[in-house]
Amino acid sequence: MSQLLSWLRRMNERLAVIAGLLLLASVTVTILDIIARRVGLSLGGTDEFSGYAMAISTSWGISYALTCMAHVRIDLLRAKAAPAGRALFDAIAILSLAGTALVIGYRVWPVLAKTLKSGATANTPLETPLWIPQSLWFAGWAWFAVSAVIIALAVILHIAGRKFDAVDEIAGVRTEV
């Protein structure tokens, strides 16, 4: 299980870099459009591209946040609990997150399926085939669900083996040093 979790962390780091590059590309295009407007030109579609970039990078980036334990947690009770209690709070948190990710992934699919069926395009000058950004968006949510389920399974296995410190390492709260 530790090899799978290490692989998941490495993969999410790579995906986060790609998501960051997508955001950087969006910023670059926006800056170029602003400069072009100063001389009476426009690239067009900058806002559309930026919206796609934000949705796609967010859906992929949340998996990185998950493996870095960067998601917001209210840990007032957890901090005062014994190791077994902390592991229980961590299990509740990751199971809730995995459940939420699965529901979102499940609910995102019909949006993409409808687009694929209808061949919808954006109602903009670019007329982007919407299946392209929606496929990337859906894939990000699906990957987040897979990542959360893998971590949830690891937490359950560690709790069953009474390895509470291991639970803290993979699903605990990141402490500031």
Automatic annotation (TrEMBL):
It is a multi-pass membrane protein. It comes from the Bacteria. The chain crosses the membrane at residues 15-37, 49-66, 87-109, 136-157. Keywords: Cell inner membrane, Cell membrane, Membrane, Transmembrane, Transmembrane helix, Transport. One of its GO terms (molecular function) is transmembrane transporter activity. One of its GO terms (biological process) is C4-dicarboxylate transport. GO terms for cellular component: plasma membrane. Pfam families: DctQ (PF04290). It is found in: Cell inner membrane. Residues 27-150 form the Tripartite ATP-independent periplasmic transporters DctQ component domain. Belongs to the TRAP transporter small permease family. The complex comprises the extracytoplasmic solute receptor protein and the two transmembrane proteins. Part of the tripartite ATP-independent periplasmic (TRAP) transport system. This is TRAP transporter small permease protein. It comes from Denitrobaculum tricleocarpae.
